[in-house]
Design goal:
Number of helices: 2
Radius of gyration: 14 Å
Helix content: 25-40%
Largest sheet: 5 strands, mixed
Order of helices and strands: HEEEHEE
Number of domains: 1
CATH topology: Trna Endonuclease, Chain: A, domain 1
Shape: globular
Distance between the termini: 33 Å
Strand content: 35-45%
Number of strands: 5
Structural class: alpha+beta
Strand order of the largest sheet: 1-2-3-4-5
Length: about 120
């Protein structure tokens, strides 16, 4: 695995632990289908939280939130819809789309958790 993939995987692990500390339950990591990928699928009570993790360590690139374009939001939305349909939960649970921006500063992860960062797009 290349260095950036390792950094990204570590950021996702740290974000998952952070969310679990906030009382969310892990349902799936890196859910993949032909429509796209969702980094973390968590559950908070009866709400399924589809979470995009963004690690940004170069100030010259766009921010983590800015990097989640409308196209990316649409891809995540369609992937979430597929996941819910596949698991027969489409009309049985509430959903939310969160983004976690991860920074690694002074040998520590810092998180900016954006709940309801975007709405489902068709």
């Amino acid at each position: 695995m290349c260095n950036s993939k390792i950094i990204g995987a570590n950021a996702e692990k740290a974000a998952c632990i952070f969310l679990q500390q906030q009382k969310l339950k892990l349902i799936a990591k890196n859910f993949n289908c032909k429509l796209g990928e969702i980094d973390l699928i968590m559950r908070e009570k009866n709400t399924f939280v589809f979470t995009e993790v963004r690690m940004r360590n170069n100030k010259y690139y766009t921010s983590g939130l800015e990097s989640i374009t409308v196209s990316k939001q649409r891809k995540i939305s369609k992937t979430a819809l597929f996941y819910l349909q596949k698991n027969h939960m489409l009309d049985k649970v509430d959903t939310r789309f969160d983004v976690i921006i991860v920074d690694y500063i002074n040998n520590q992860y810092q998180f900016n958790w954006l709940k309801n960062a975007f709405l489902a797009l068709a």
